């Protein structure tokens, strides 16, 4: 069951890895044109969506601009070249490729219907080098948005059925809610994560900067311990586990790397289940001057609040002023009106599209995007909310995952999970199971989670001076390297592995 961002991450990594090379950033400076002239030509091509040609000129202009003292423009060269790489690695299907993929995925659907999908213009696409290119996961997303097509896929259906059965059969009956004690049923987990990258996929010189995701202390998550980071010589900051985001920052001196890159991270943490017993009449009033209230009711980053989003929230709650009851109405509305879909995350922010706006416009999104949309609607009503997450392990292995939380005076941060909450709609389960499942994921949260960040768009520790591929979420390693002409993540993610959690 793909509730996570990771499927997209792997696609981006694989596409970039085979389409590009990890060469040094050198490039000839003997051109008769100045760096600024090349930079402008590249910008013109970039604006015309000619990303392949633009990328070549950006890499050529970058060292020239640096030598000429135009640091800001040199920085922009790298950013835009990497944006183009992300676009091309995400939208990989030509129209003929798409038709073939749809035929393979849906052999029993009439050809006229599949042709109509393409003609509709609603399938995720982007103009690249003058051609309409389609998102790699288009076929999977069509299935997610059509119950009959989804249930015709035995693997997808089995995974969703397993999930609902685990939650309704084990998680929900596993403990009893206790008033004024929302954190119960704690479990301790350990994890070993690794990065393995062949030496020939990295430049010979330069410094590879890496931010590894680690758990944070966060309400139901306690006793976080980073046991080791190896080689220890790479670790430049103590692991950050007490802030908005958890990471371990490493620097790899590539001129000293004689063999393959190998990094091992070990940690453990204790995670409690959350079961909130909320009496709406006992919810206190917000202190609107409080820093938490101000922070989590603002329009920010990918949790953007627009006038249409606010109007949608107002239409859903129908004048309800109690924040608990208003949030509950938004949750159930989203279960029925927003479809789960994989997302082209790495390509949205560079195009100026906040995730909350993307979901509002299209009425679909994955776990993180849905959580940001919920948060934007709640914030628009003056209810502090955030998209928090890291991983879920409901079926035994780590899966990247985000969910939402909203703040209630006298109670604290109350969880909900719209994307997992939608599972019964696609599964073949009883109405009683479906209702119990949906109800559980408002105000409750299983203990099979690992929180890496309190909110999306949190700043890495230390902050990244240059672009990282997915700045809104840290679930796989983030990287910077000024001697690479590819996104470092295209190499790091291909070598990233997490084992099943140990207890």
Question: How does this structure look, described?
Answer:
This protein is of the alpha+beta class and 503 residues long. The protein has three domains: 31-151, no CATH class; 156-181 and 279-453, C8orf32 fold, CATH 3.10.620.30; 184-273 and 469-498, Immunoglobulin-like (Sandwich), CATH 2.60.40. The protein has helices at 6-19, 35-47, 51-68, 71-90, 95-105, 111-119, 138-144, 147-151, 154-171, 291-295, 307-317, 323-337, 345-348, 355-362, 367-380, 418-421, 423-426, 431-440, 488-492, and strands spanning 91-93, 125-128, 131-135, 183-197, 207-213, 221-230, 247-253, 261-275, 339-340, 364-365, 385-392, 399-408, 412-416, 444-445, 449-453, 478-480, 496-498. The strands form five sheets. Strands 4, 6, 8, 14 and 17 form a five-stranded antiparallel sheet that branches. A four-stranded antiparallel sheet has the order 13-12-11-15. A three-stranded antiparallel sheet has the order 1-3-2. Mean pLDDT is 93; it is low at 1-32.
